[in-house]
Amino acid sequence: MKTDQVIKILFIEKSVEDAEQIISLLRNSGIAVRPARATSTEQITAALDELGPDIVLFDPSVGTLELREVARMLDAHGRDLSLIALVSQVDNAAITELFVNGARSVALRPQPKQLMAVIQREFDALNARRQLRRLEAALRESERRCDALLDSSTDAIAYVHEGMHVRANQAYLDTFGYTEFDDLLGLPVLDMIGANDADEFKNTLKGLSKGEKPSGAIELQARRADASTFKASVEFAHATFEGESCLQVVFRRQMVDANVIEQLQRDPVTGLFNRARMLECIDEAVAAATQGTKGQSLLLIEPDNWQTIVAGVGLAKADELLAAFAARVESQLTAQDTAGLLAEHTVGVLLHTRNDEGIKQWIAGLQQAIAGGIFDLGSRSLTITSSIGGSMLGERNANTELLLNQASQALRNAQSQGGNRSDLHDPAAREKADEERERYWLGVINQALLQNEFVLYHQQTISLQDAEGEFSEILLRLNGPQGEVLPGFFMPIAEKHNLTPAIDRWVLNQAIEHLRGRDRMGSPTTFFVKLTSGSLEDKELLPWLDERLKQAALKHGQLVLEMTESKVVTALRPAQEFIQAWQKIGGQFALEQFGSGLNSFQLLNHINADYLKIDRSYMADLPQQQESQKKVADICRQARELKKHTIAEWVEDAASTSLLFACGVDFVQGNFLQEPQRLG
């Protein structure tokens, strides 16, 4: 599931608390949720119109609605969505009845992992269905445009079904000496071929009719209506005409020089295939995988520390070095393998007919060939290493975009481990690889704590209501082997191993030092600092924090601790006690991702937040989303009544800023206003 997508979920639940638990479960897994709840047909109708849900979670014990009735309402609404039944236990008869009455899946409430897996599967399937419809519509539009362009083409083009002409353009009629298409209708295309080439042409048609892939152009003698002949190059492609599968046949009287074509497909620096041709090769490999071809894999290869190396040798030598690097890669290929330049210094390689162990051996051999050799650049000589990431290609991931993403992620994983490493995406070995990566990053995190290798950034929070002083959000980074790493990558591992309280203390201590420095310079500032749920159990944190603030002669209000709404909901009692104790000594608290729950303001009955940071999902395309504008304005109105400040994060354009001001937002924050800057 793409975690940057917002899933719109309609809960048909009798309990708000049960729905909130599922919302928190999803959000704590990094999945954005836009929820609504209904317990009557009127509420369902309103939610279908206003929310436009992707998934409907139905609790059979809701009492006021029957599943069959709900399924009928959803069908009548006409929106493609997934209806999932929520049950507390497995009962074969009951589950059978749920499927019969319209449920697409059944999820077990007491089993969070199964529940998450079902929601993820259904959301992925829903997106696949929607994508299929978009592709079908795009295909129909492409076919319409192709048909419109057919007659304007100077190439002789015909569509052939079971060996007979069903469509031909004017150039085809002119080439073969026919006045109108009726003269060709029902005429075998074989009649257009000279006698000496008829058998070869016939065999080619037979192979294509069995689904074989066109092998390229063939040269033959074509025959006109007056029995005269001419030399032609014929190309084939599978196509459809009026919904029927057919062949597109193109006759060209003049061939482009094969050497010219070959040259146009090559990168001028490396001599490898250029990006366009390499992507075609990947598409071809993906198509072969859908037909059952095995043993293929895509590798992405990059020299380590490329920018540093180029800075050392100079831009004038960069192309020469890249060409030598590409030659080293090409020297390891067999005749069946393919290599091309996919980006500035990223070489893509398609390996064929190799098993898992063979791929790993090839990678090891290539890295040894690169690292063990010397690259001569005029009077300079140097050695370099490489990082390699790849993905094995099979029917399940037979999609060019998915394959490239998997290989890119594997390359980033290899580079993040220090270079001269490789990482191969293999679903069968994913669990083992994840464990290895986790052990590695656990060591990096522990080292960062011991050697002060974390880094703080800040992003200014701008007041729209002329509040005094400066306000900034504190952002954490980790100095990794290949540069700075975002917390979304390492914090889940730190949380799993209970290292987040120690990280929180490091961040708070650094923030206090910077606040003290700003006070001395006459620039009093308020910092918003994220707190993890692990720190709620740290009984010594608040006494330590109180003492540190007093030592620095800072007002406690200059440090605003913040937590996400979903984290607070799942740890409500300890969060409540912690926040009360923090506010008692003068501190302030902010709720992040506010508005993501079914009734976020109800949470304020238990949590006395000073700031409400509006959920970022409402900022996406805000000027075009009337529903989001209305929701933000409603949050601001209720917040003002409760005397709480509102903050809008992830603001990315001037139009959104103006709308937020009109909605009554107190503060705004985002890259449009200021990019995060290193705290110094």
Shape: globular
- How much strand content do the residues show? 15-25%
Number of helices: 22
> What portion of residues is helical?
40-55%
Report, as a whole number of angstroms, the end-to-end distance.
Answer: 38 Å
User: Unreliable runs, pLDDT <50, ≥5 residues?
Assistant: none
Structural class: alpha/beta
What gyration radius follows from the Cα positions, in whole Å? 32 Å
Average pLDDT score: 88
The largest sheet is: 11 strands, mixed
Strand elements, count: 28
Protein name: EAL domain-containing protein
Domain GGDEF: 294-427
Coiled coil: 125-152
Domain EAL: 438-680
In short, what is this structure?
This is EAL domain-containing protein. This protein has 22 helices and 28 strands. With 680 residues, it is α/β, with parallel strands linked by helices.
Observed structural traits:
680 residues; alpha/beta; eleven-stranded mixed beta sheet; five-stranded parallel beta sheet; 23% strand; globular; coiled coil
Description:
This protein has 680 residues and is of the alpha/beta class. The chain is built from 22 helices and 28 strands. Strands 18, 19, 20, 21, 22, 23, 24, 25, 26, 27 and 28 form an 11-stranded mixed sheet that branches. A 5-stranded parallel sheet has the order 2-1-3-4-5, sandwiched between helices. A 5-stranded antiparallel sheet has the order 7-6-10-9-8. The longest helix is centred in the N-terminal third of the chain and has 39 residues, at 112-150. It starts with 5 loop residues before the first strand and ends with a strand.
